[in-house]
Amino acid sequence: MKYKHLFFDLDRTLWDFDSNFIETFKEIFTKFSLEQNGIPSLEAFTTTYIGHNDRLWDLYRNDKISKEELRDTRFIITLNDFGINNVALANEISEEYIFISPRKGILMPGTIEVLEQLKNEYHLHIITNGFEEIQKVKMEYAGLNDYFDCIVTSEEAGSKKPDNRIFNYALEKAGAKVTESIMIGDDFEVDILGATSIGMDTIFYDPKNTERVDQMSTYRVTHLTELLSLLERKN
Known about the structure:
This protein is an alpha/beta fold and 235 residues long. The protein has two domains: 5-16 and 107-234, HAD superfamily/HAD-like (Rossmann fold, 3-Layer(aba) Sandwich); 17-103, DNA polymerase, domain 1, CATH 1.10.150.240. It has ten helices and six strands. A six-stranded parallel β-sheet has the order 3-2-1-4-5-6. α6 (132-141) links the parallel β2 (123-128) and β3.
């Protein structure tokens, strides 16, 4: 058997971040009467927030801002864009988001089916850039804990994907050799290029079927269930 250790990303690879996000924002938009506060629609609220959140996460990944700055800022500036200068409201929304979102349990299609079949043949692990306390709640509420031997967060490792240190840390924690391991993730720059930098094979999970021409991943799948036949062939 070529591969013994499968390392998975969590958000948007197993845990359906986008669906859980929308469900959470629907609840927040209603609970805090945001339309009455001057935000014209749920779509406007989510689109504005995503733009700010993505930019702040890029800064966080590159150690330009702290975890606290990311959390404290993203809802303040989102509300400001709609002329709402209310830090207390932004903080309430932030706390609600942090509580509700990780307790949503929508998974990417095929997640449980695939993990059920893989768990008896491979050692399964998680490598995630998400905040440690949040990712632990996600794993628990989505019923994922029992499938994985090691769960490595960037906070625990002291480095974030695509930094090669987090991948080396995960290998050491799992007791895995790079030649017996493969990384599975949806983010080409963060998951695929990061793992490739230490010589680890990769599977680019590409549910949107982007068909990147500059792809450097070892393999590519568009649905998680494709992992089963792919790994069977390669092993």
